[in-house]
Write a structure and sequence with these properties.
Elements: H1 10-25, H2 29-39, H3 44-51, H4 55-62, H5 71-87, H6 91-94, E1 107-118, H7 119-125, E2 128-132, E3 140-148, H8 149-155, E4 172-176, H9 182-190, E5 197-201, H10 211-220, E6 224-227, H11 232-243
Length: 244
């Protein structure tokens, strides 16, 4: 391993322990390893080279062809993720930094999927109408965050926006209490980290959605979906069912 990082801060250690714990406790550890490699936006060959193993070995683990990896291998895998990202500025590591501000009234629900769901599956779960990005329905989604749109405007600042991404940005940001949908898309456009898809809840038909919001989503190449779920509790319940 081409390691030049000798010590890790509390944020890195916490993240490393979390990833390792998920791998150890999973019945399909290869799926978890693949998930985290993709979340860190690393190719198999690059990660394997840094770990000092053949890409075929990592591929076999990710496909669960080998028995569960031992602690030494898991440590090497997790360390490689952190060290590579650290050398690139720690963008992914910082996604896990938690601010002290209480956002419980703004982040109504948040979860990570153990295995990817497709954009199409999320659309079906929220009884959605795709307003933009129809061609991206097979893209993977690894989690969701349900955001109270009005409270977000009232209490959140730019640094808080990072907390909407939970453990990864390959997720659906679901904004509820929306009037026309422009504000969520403007926020997404100006923030450097992008979600995989945006869902809004509030308008009762596509014609009620701001045309600028749709244009912004199309410009970002991002699926933009209007949920027609009856209310917020049923919307959250359907998203949670995807996790189970």
């Amino acid at each position: 391993m081409d390691s030049s990082v000798d010590t890790y801060g509390p944020m890195e250690e916490s993240l490393m322990n979390r990833i390792a714990g998920e791998i150890i406790l999973s019945k399909a550890p290869g799926d978890i390893m693949k998930k985290w490699r993709l979340l860190f936006e690393l190719g198999q060959s690059e990660l394997a080279r840094y770990m000092g193993i053949a890409p075929s070995v990592l591929n076999d683990y990710e496909k669960n062809r080998r028995k569960s990896p031992g602690t030494i291998f898991i440590r090497k895998f997790v360390t490689a993720l952190i060290e590579i990202d650290s050398k690139r500025g720690g963008v992914h590591i910082r996604k896990f930094a938690a601010a002290a501000k209480d956002l419980s009234s703004t982040i109504l629900d948040i979860a990570e999927f153990l295995k990817a769901k497709s954009v199409r599956e999320v659309v079906e779960a929220v009884e959605g109408i795709i307003l933009a990005g129809r061609e991206s329905q097979d893209q993977p989604i690894y989690g969701y965050t349900v955001v109270d749109s009005l409270n977000a405007i009232k209490v959140m600042d730019a640094s808080d926006f990072l907390r909407l991404f939970g453990a990864n940005s390959m997720r659906a940001l679901v904004f509820v209490g929306v009037s026309r949908g422009r504000s969520p898309l403007i926020a997404v456009k100006i923030y450097p980290i992008k979600p995989r898809m945006v869902v809004i809840h509030g308008p009762t038909k596509p014609e009620d959605v701001d045309e600028l919001a749709i244009m912004l989503a199309e410009h970002e190449g991002m699926p933009f979906v209007l949920s027609l779920k009856q209310d917020v509790p049923s919307l959250i319940s359907s998203l949670r069912n995807l996790y189970r």
